[in-house]
Each structure stands twice: as structure tokens, then as C-alpha cells.
Amino acid sequence: MKPSRLPLDWFACGLMFVLCICWGFQQVAIKLTLDDVPSILQLAIRSGGAALVLGALVLWREGRAAFSDGTLLPGVAVGALFALEFLFIGEGLNHTSASHLSVFLYTAPMFAALGLHLMLPEERLSPLQWLGVLVAFGGIAMAFLGQPAGAPGNVLLGDGYALLGALAWGATTLVIRGSKLSEASPVKTLFYQLFGAALLLTAVAFGTDQTEMQLTQRALISLGFQVVVIALVSYLAWFWLLRRYLASRLSVLSFMTPLFGVTFGVLVLGERIDLSFALGAALVLGGIVLVSGTELLRGRQQRKALAPSEA
User: Fold this and answer.
1) Angle between helices 98-105 and 10-32 (to 10 degrees)
2) Distances (CA, A) of 300 to 14, 124, 247, 287, 303
3) Is the Cβ–Cβ distance between 259 and 103 less than 8 Å?
């Protein structure tokens, strides 16, 4: 019998607030050091550094039989998908702003919800959730089509890469949910993802001659932040929260991330936000909250309905 998940408390809300700040800043950290280290190489180093630590933890806990529990094949799949997500993020940041990428990347839960609707009967979307999907797609169209006058054409390419990254992220969720990885430890699941990303992104970096780097103080601080804070601490904290608290509540709080991403993009990088993108982003976030937040409302209604009978 699976342990029941807890409703959010002040500790969970506070931790999610900190995580969203970190996730919102990660695209900015990559963008700040593009002149020192290519984006693909940054992501390869970040994934490889964290994968070494996580791999050692998995072997220490489970020994040589760690990967003979039926998780290896889905682990290879999520590793490849995670690598694709990071590849699209890296290429996207070469063309579009950190603000744009943060918003478009966080359409991933919507794509995951659509996939789960097709995979699992208990994950069928309600009419309100379908409305959220339509609203979000309308926001994507507005943000895409309303590029400001004079914007370089490759901004659209970068935004497209961000959406492809979101698709890869959503597909990763589907593989985890529909395989043995759903019962595996968070450390092992994250190891598969980061190890696969490190291998493929390193190959891409060498294959496309993106290996030259200058280890300036700024680059070292950025890489340290990405390896330790993002790839290790924040991801493990997220998985720990998912195993302890209700996922639907956590998903709604996670949509603070693109808001922080846009804010950091404007304040740190001096990015400009045009009206069409702002309106489109608002629709995207509103639609995703409808898709992910419906479960929260449904659970609350069910508890109210049960309250009289329990009394």
C-alpha cells in the first residue's frame, strides 16, 4: 500500500518558493556566461558533475544489482529525453531571451497532461482542463505571432527550441509514470536522466566544435551554481517533495518559476518584454494552472462532500 501524500504546509511552500527562484535563475546563469562557455558544454558539465555524485550514491545504496531491477531500459529512454530537453534549451538560449525560454519551457506539464490523458484512464482531462489547454495554446500563438518590430528572425527559432524542450520534458514524465521508474528511488531516476544528458551533450559539444571555454571567475561561479544548486540540491529536493506531498499542489506552485525567470531576465540581463509576449505568457500560465490546478479543486470538493458523512 502506497503511503498517502500530505497537503502542503508552510515548510513545503517555503521550499517550493526557494526552488522556483533557483529554477527561474538557471537560464539567466547560462546566458550570462555564453561568451566564456558554450551553452551545450555548460549543460554537459552540469549533468556530468551531478551524475558522478548520484551514481556513487546509487552504487553505495544498492550495490552492483542496482540496475537489474527493470529500470535500465526506461532509464536509457529518460536519459535520452533529458538530453534532448537540455539540447533544445542550450540551442534556444543561443537565439532567444531567457524570459521567453522560461515561459515556453514551462508548457511541459500541459504536454504531459495530454499524454497521460491518452495513456491512463484515471488521468482523463476534465472539460475545465481542456479549456486550460486551449487557453495555453492560444497564449503560445499570441507570444509567437506577436514578435516586436525589428526583432531578429532567429527569436522565433529560439522560441521553437524552447517548445521542443517542453515536449521532451513532458515525454520524460510519461516514461517515468508508465515504467518501473515510478517506483524507483529519486536518486536513481535523476541519475539516469543526468548521466544520459552528460553523454549525449558531450558528444554534441565535440561534434559541433563547441568545446572551447574560458574558465573565468564568472564561469566557475555559474558552473558551480548549476552543478551543486540546480542539478543536485534542487532536483533531489523536488523529488523528495513529490514523494511526501500532493503532486497537484506542488505543480501549481511550480508555476512561479517562469515568473521569476522573466523577472531575472529583465533585471539581470536587461531583456525587454513586449506587450504581445506579456499577454501571451499570461494566457500560457493561466491555461497551465487550469490544467494542473483542477486536481487541487477536485480534491477539495471531495473532502467537503465527505465531511458531513464523517461527522
Assistant:
1) 140
2) 22, 18, 14, 20, 5
3) no
